[in-house]
């Protein structure tokens, strides 16, 4: 199976052929995937070099001319380093772009902490009007990329990862999907966390919701799953733990409920290791998730951080 990022280049190259509004802006990273597209569309495939602030500024400039820019690099270089440009060049000027990241929270541990971005979605949460897609499979990534490019002039973030579920789920770019039903609580699995959540909750009487579009947050799906009496809700997110707990609290503000946000902890892991070791260290493998989810549903106090 290809990865989400391997799917990205061919999909967006086809979109360049199909839609004259689409442009691609790169900062050295990912250029090899667009060599053919650049020959066909030299005016709409732009490499600004290792200049991430310019990457966003150039995308915003293209948007001001009426184009639909797709802007790509590692998450830390796309959201964190040029955050002022994301806030001002896009948000303040009222123009949109499709920001497509790679490396997720810790997809390339050997790159060190400079190439890790567990706080990207939380950082975008400080800005208004962003749609955030977190696919869990390359097929879902393709669908959500097409949704993002077709979304008028909206501001959209698509978070790609080498972590993937074994199979794709039909996604529509908006709603959470119910993949298992139960009565003792609700677990929201985001993107590539679905397989681990399904394994962790096997035999537990819980509803599992699958989220690939996390902003706007599908509050209606959470309310339906919890019912009028409220319920316990566990969020399992592949980025900073607790990123969406406020969204759940807002959705259930008028009913009794408890929320546990599981995800990547704030503590920096300085022995970079492998992706699998990072997953285990943050308590996001199936065995650790089962212990934490079951303990929370049983009423025991459970830490959000591994």
TrEMBL record:
It comes from the Bacteria. InterPro entries: PDH/Transketolase, THDP-binding, Transketo_C/PFOR_II, Transketolase-like_Pyr-bd, Transketolase_C. SUPFAM superfamilies: Thiamin diphosphate-binding fold (THDP-binding), TK C-terminal domain-like. CDD domains: TPP_PYR_DXS_TK_like. PANTHER family: PYRUVATE DEHYDROGENASE E1 COMPONENT. Residues 2-168 form the Transketolase-like pyrimidine-binding domain. Pfam families: Transket_pyr, Transketolase_C. This is Transketolase C-terminal domain-containing protein.
